[in-house]
Design a protein that fits this description.
Shape: globular
Helix content: over 70%
Largest sheet: none
Radius of gyration: 23 Å
Number of domains: 3
Distance between the termini: 45 Å
Oligomer: single chain
Low-confidence stretches: none
Structural class: mainly alpha
Length: 433
Amino acid sequence: MKFSKFNNFELSAIFFIFLSIIVLGLGSLLFPEIIWDDFVNPNIWAPIVGDATLGDSPYNTQNTILFAVLLFSFVIAISGVFRINNLPCRHDTIVALIPWVILAAAIRVLEDSEFFIDGTDKLFISPIIHFHLAIWLIAAGTIGYLVTKNLQDSNNNEIFNQMLNRIRFSTAFMFLLFYLIIFEPSLEQHGNLSWFSIPITVLLSMSVVWLFPAIPSLEWTPLERMLFSTGSAFCMLTFGFWLQFFIEPWASYSSQEFWPVIVSIGVPIVILVGLYKYGIAAQIELENRGIEPGVLTSEWTAAEWEKHKSPEKDEIESLMSKAMIASPLTLAFTFGQLCDGLATWIGVDFGPYKEKHVLGTKIMEFGSEIIEGEGAWLFLIVKIILTCLLIFVFSKTRIESQQKHLRLLIVLALLAVGMAPGLRNLGRNVLGV
């Protein structure tokens, strides 16, 4: 891949990532007293170790800023890689990646329950867990691409069925590897348990492996089908261990509550249904015209479209604004942000948990000054306001075709910092760990 194909924005992000690795990694080896002892260990590594061994370790200003800038840089850099390699990027591509966000949260809850053995538990602490699972995602995508690269004709039933079967076998192979590498090493320390749920989970996972690649209503590429089915199978396996914890807890827990599920998931789903109904007719109308919601056709640049004035533009603008509200991209981050706000509010104001992020802690402290208590209610309000602002921005922003990958990665980042911690908080509320 030639660096000349990246734009200046992407090259700057790549440069910053490599610079951070060199300064923090090589610097820790060459100047341990300055880089490692004074910055990396106390601000980055020690909180990760504390999270894995002692429970929640709070974030600090230094690692919060570093992680935020690195996340933004990775979004820009990876979007460039996706763009150059012309990887799938439609408004429903995000659906194929959502199981991986859920997986990060589900495995993180298992780490909270003290399932994983010492030494491997740090792989499931943020931000390491996101890089760790990214390796599995890349491996699944690579295998899916290699086994189906000559089977892209979805209009030919014979070729289409061959493609589905190859994805099924590849997903089953990845599922076996995931079980043997991630879960099997930790089973020995829980040898007194019956593991009643595991055979049931494996059967359900195999059903996912067989059925999910062939979901008929999604016009996905083989790569998208592979990522969706693999991530979903991994999630099913992980939730099987949740079920085992309900049957035979292997660690102490405070209480197991199910009502947070109704609030943290039910309320966002009701809102999502309303958003979908509001914009789906406009989305269908645009698709009938061959226009992707929020994306300008090749004849326009963003600057030209902004200056252009005509009745046709006004009509398309109106349709795009409504269609983007019903887009899977908008629905995904809306669910994630609201779930995070609600689950955090329940866990802090009604449960035994504390906020660990710097900004969230400041908001809750301010909330507790306004109304005596924990103050997470204000965090929920801020999340609601942020969600409304994001919906407005996404509904009004028009991008050019080459910016679609960046838009997709921005939403994925929003899910990583919204849906993933929200589902983790919900999982902890439910399991009581």
